[in-house]
Design brief:
heterodimer; A: alpha/beta; Rossmann fold; 9-stranded mixed sheet; two-stranded antiparallel ribbon; 13 strands; 27% helix; B: 321 residues; alpha/beta; 5-stranded parallel sheet; 8 helices; 25% strand; elongated
Amino acid sequence: MKIIVAIKQVPARDSQLRVDSAGKWIQTSDLSFEVNEPDAYALEAALQLKEKNGGEVVALCAGPVGASQTIREALAKGADRALHIEDDTLTNQDTLAVSRLLAKAASTENPDLILTGLQSDDLGSGQTGVVIAELMGMPHATIIMEVEKKDASIRVKRELEDGWFQHVELPLPAVLTIQSGISKLRYATLMGIKKAKTKEVKRLTAAELGIAPQATVTIEKVYAPVKTKQTQILEGTAREAAAKLVEKLKFEVRVL
Amino acid sequence: MSGILVITEQRSRLSAETLAAGQQLGTALHLPVSAVVIGTSEAGEFADKKLDRVYTVDDPLLRAYTPDGYTAALEQLIRLKNPQVVLLPHTYQVRDFAPKLATRFQQVLVSDVVDFRVEGGSVTMVRQLFQGKLNADVKFGGNAPYFASLQAGAFRAESAVPAETAPAVETVTVQLDASQIRSRPEEPFREAQRAVDLTAASIIVSVGRGIREKENIPMVEELAKVMGAELAASRPICDNGWLPMERQVGSSGQTVAPKVYLAVGISGAIQHLVGMKGAKTIVAINKDANAPIFEVADYAIVGDLFEVVPALIEEVKRAKS
């Protein structure tokens, strides 16, 4: 089974974010980046499927030159090779524009399965997997907890809301978005890191894929959320703040 | 192109919120608002709302949800009725099919919208970035229809305007073929009966990633105990197996509205906030002053939970003695 895993590089989780001077995105020059956590779970699911059923895992990433660090990590964890659509302008694009690039690159590989995280930690639109499926004419399922390979199909466990689940069977090839937190993520081994250096990373550009990325919806302005609530900050040492809180809970909220 | 179409979801409380938002947008844009119910011929709860029309789209192939079936049916309805804007509730089901539906129209779903503005007849959608740390104003482009899904709790269901005269109910027939539907869904199920009903608790102490290790959970457990509270958690804690899934609050867990919700080491990702922002009083303890949880908090302690929680346990004990 040939599995493509679409991964994205995003600012590290605890980054202090500042809006850039144009007010349309964040300042990225002083940030450190990491793999989008939900995509790390998609990669883990792909590697486990390969271990069970054989085949190949190909990492697919659209992003700036600097995203090669995230791609190397995926290779070090066990992906066999990678496709990197190098483009510095993708933060100005929307889901459809980026998905068109990913779908075109993926279609050259004739995969049996395409996996990705259920959403990105930066834009958080949660749509890339579904849009890729539509563009490639493949069936899809989202927020997947388990994947069971059958002959020409897969049976997956989907998470629904409020503690409900559902099994769905899909013919292959198909696209799945993987739920986060469903398994323990592996670390790259020293051997893996060493091997990753010799693994193939095929670099592609939008022009080579015959696509001129064009955003349909645009971000006009990025800003800190306006507070809707009056928040009282309880200052002081831990003990002082705790005492103030108990005071509030007892005499204002009246619950203690 | 005219009108606003609200795509409802059966058995989802978000449908009424989306309908209320649709009415507000319709008023601002001077456009009529219609709603569609799928997989049933009954207009149900939407028959008494102020709407131009309620469309019912029913077919044996729509009784069980599939992304192929829903997309094919709604694509036909939209091509027939030509709405300017299509609004959907941001549910798991909508996340599953709406991006596909929008792509059929060479459009991009603006997802998880928390607010909108209309200026000079032009709509600006507001959505969150970086898990709620920043907001973005987003503009539609290209040709209508424009698609947006609305975050749970962003609009109030109670603000929906009731009908003076019942809206016309129109049955729309769609052409579906079983061969179009590639996925085979089985019956939804629940893994285990819930033993813990967090919705009944008047005080909830909830713990998140900031607790770092399973070994530190008992400290928060003790705080819950001295406060007479139920213990709850954000998703990562339950995923790690540090607390059972039945104690999870958020879009995939329980939705709670206690008198007091005390969030310990919870950053406040959207998926968590939708499960608890209805609490009467929200208290947050977090070391990151920029954590989104503080946006919804009434009382905030910016500090190290490993210092604050033990101090709080002692202070609560003292106040109660």
